[in-house]
Amino acid sequence: MSRIATVLVPTHSHGPLLAQAVGSALEQSISDIEIFIVGDGVDPLTRQVALDLCARDKRVTFFDKEKGPRHGELHRHEALHQASGRIVCYLSDDDLWLHDHVASMLGLLDGADFAHALPIGIRLDGSVFPWAGHLEVANSRDRVIAYLNFIPLSTGAHTLDRYRRLPFGWRTTPEGISTDVYMWSQILQEPGCVARSGTRPTVLHFPSPWREEMTPDQRLEELARWRERIAAPDFEARFTSTVTDDTARDRADKEEAVSQLSQRVASFENELQAARGQLDDQQTQLADTKERLEQAERQLADAQNRLEDREAQLTSALGRLEDCELQLVNAKDRHEVYEVQLQSLQGQLEWMSQSLTWRTRERLLRLPGVARITRWAGAARSRRAAD
Fold this sequence. Notes:
Blueprint: E1 3-11, H1 15-26, E2 33-40, H2 44-56, E3 60-65, H3 73-80, E4 85-90, E5 96-97, H4 101-108, E6 114-116, E7 120-122, E8 128-130, H5 138-145, E9 156-159, H6 160-164, H7 179-188, E10 195-197, E11 203-204, H8 216-230, H9 235-355, H10 358-366, H11 370-386
Parallel strand pairs: 1-2, 1-4, 2-3, 6-10
Antiparallel strand pairs: 4-9, 5-11, 6-9, 7-8
Helix pairs in contact: 1-2, 1-8
């Protein structure tokens, strides 16, 4: 039997919160719905809550699956094989729907493939935080395709027909990417996909990262308090007014932040301009210093060349000096030889003078060269005596 809507509620360990979330789905203005609670390795308390919900209302079905990869996305895909709703809406096990959420999604999906309610986050102090984005604006759609999410799981919906024409459907999401935006991106990338964004707040989203310090009892009390508020006849009108006021205040805060940021940017640009001027001056000084350094290097190279020439000249002079010293040593050696020869000749001469008669001496003196040798020997003796 076909239904108007299939409501898929993934869960793991939010037992008492699950009862509050599914309770808000069972109270929808459109009652022709089926609710699939898809368990991903649930704990005993969550399992008991899910079974109790099935026993209380036949529209609830519990898929009790073992823990799968990431958040058990493959279990969701398997459950949707049994879906009979014209549209598929999603509900986190710690969020709440207003009474006409399904009706609102049904209207948005008339002629469309994917839609979402106005994303409203509930802060710890009860104030609301609207997420900015609209799928009919190209930039917003591109952000979701690029896995930058502003559509919480509880606000998203699509037609069952579109889902069954997807190449994959729910599948294990890569680490670092939210499971919901991984699904939304796949749908929005489909050629011809028509997507719409709601402008009415029909979902109360209670982000878990904002509530890490809260105990399970505190979270349950928070949801129960909000469910009681939702039951009031004039809640939607008052809540819409609150959302409008908080949105206006948030927009004013953002404009103030943008203004302050613009001022900081202008100040930074002035500082950057001054820094660029200083940098230009420093670059000019650096160029001058570099030129002087290059000139000094050239002068140093010239001085080094001159020093090498001087060293070559000194080496040549040392070589010549060594030659002169060698010649001097040789001359000294020859002089000593000559002195020895002279002493020998002098001894011979003295001997001859003593052994010959005066006549013989006279004859010898008249011989060529003898007189000259005699004079030389006499002079030599005089020099030695002087020394």
